[in-house]
Amino acid sequence: MARFRSPEGVLSLYLTFDPAAGERRDIRAAFVDAIKPLDQLPLSDGQRARLEEEQALVQEFAGSRFALHGRSVILFSCRPRKLWQVFQLQAPVRPLARFAERPAVAQMAAILDEHERYAVALVDKDEARLLSVYLGQAEQRARIADKYPGQTKMGGWAAARYSHHRDAHLHAHVLRVAEALLDELRRQPFDRLLVGGPDEARSAFLHVLPRNLRERVAGSFLAELFLTDEEVVERVRAVEAAALSEAGARLVSDLGNAIGAGGLVALGWGETLQALLEGRVHKLVLAEGITRQGSVCPEGHAAVLQPLPACPFCEGPLTPVDDLAEWAAERAFDTDARVENVRGDGAQSLVAGGDGIGAVLRY
After folding, report:
1. For position 20, what pLDDT does the model report?
2. Which one of 45, 214, 217, 288 is least enclosed by Cβ atoms within 10 Å?
């Protein structure tokens, strides 16, 4: 999608629905309201006709063929090139409507980069549930059941022997759960693992995990086996938010330290935009929600914050850009650079030190 181009124009639409505000009652109206501001774009008659064609497609889709089952919708459409992609996510998005030569994919790329796939193992002494959580949605993957021996009134050596029998049963059970989790890792790889359950079963399970599972453990918590999917997602969301905040703060700190040591980094819009134009960016770092207006040379000679009548290099006209963060992300994709969006403390530090943008450079 980042490499898709069409001179006929591509419609990009990001929509978030808030059920608490009643936005699910009139889905078609939400789509119509989202694309209506595009009518104000300065377009030629041909471009206007193309935009109206895309708007009609979206309205027809929202009115008759669409069933909402997520918190947000991302849509890309270009009828002449037969592009029609609709994604529904449980994660919120920043509302956006754009009609341009290429799809607006920076926000989607940020969402995919931020949300790792989590496995959640809820383990009891005789049962276990394995779930996968990705983009705010939980899916049951496996259920394991073993009959755990009950309590006994026996005493002496018999009681000790029976206790050993129960320990052996628990050990065999958690080994089965670990094997099932390994099968899931091979079938659908995940980045992190959360383990929940009563203390004894959870401890026994963590003790038998092989290294390739143990190194993925991101947290352990006391819980009942029968948590709802929503409760599981909330657990993952809290861990995910903390991990993202920590990683972002560390990345921005590394940028600042590298600047002080004369390393290959750029900070601020001027330095970073110039490095993007030169193809020197290895990793673009953006503070979430921060952007600027500016102008760019269609020939790739300049990208500036201030409005200029002409490119200072080729003297050709500059193109106004309302969202330089989106433009920067697109330029990064074009040069095979990674894009990292940071939030929380990391975003605040990047705004303070670099006006919300920076980069790790290739050379």
Report:
1. 52
2. 45
Last residue of a domain, one of 178, 200, 227: 227
Other C-beta atoms closer than 10 Å to the C-beta of 61 total 16
Burial (0-12, 13-18, 19+ Cβ within 10 Å), 259: middle
Are 82 and 119 within one domain? no
Segment (H or E) for 326: helix 324-334
Helices then strands (H, E): number in the chain? Answer: 10, 16
User: What pLDDT is stored for residue 160 in this prediction?
Assistant: 47
Distances (CA, A) of 243 to 37, 214, 231, 235, 349: 37, 17, 19, 13, 17
Give me the sheet containing 338-342, strands edge to edge: 265-267, 357-361, 281-287, 338-342
The answer to whether residue 239 sits within a structural domain is: no
What value does the mean pLDDT of the chain take?
89
Give me the number of domains the chain comprises: 3
| Percent of the chain predicted with pLDDT > 70 | 93
Q: Dihedral of the CA atoms 218, 222, 225, 230 (nearest 10)?
A: -60
Q: Residue 331 sits in which domain range?
A: 246-363
Structure tokens given for 12: 């990009």
120 occurs within a structural domain: yes
100 and 122 in a single domain? The answer is: no
Q: Is the pLDDT of residue 124 over 60?
A: yes
- Interval 318-329 mean pLDDT: 92
Same domain, 199 and 283: no
Give the whole-angstrom CA distance, residue 287 versus residue 291: 8
CATH number of residue 283's parent domain: 3.30.1330.30
pLDDT band per the 50, 70, 90 thresholds, residue 159: very low
Task: Output phi, psi for 24, to 5 deg.
Answer: -85, -10
Q: What is the pLDDT of residues 233-253, one digit of tens each?
A: 999 999 988 888 898 999 999
For residue 47, tell me if it sits in a domain: yes
Q: How confident is the model at residue 12 (pLDDT cuts 50, 70, 90)?
A: very high
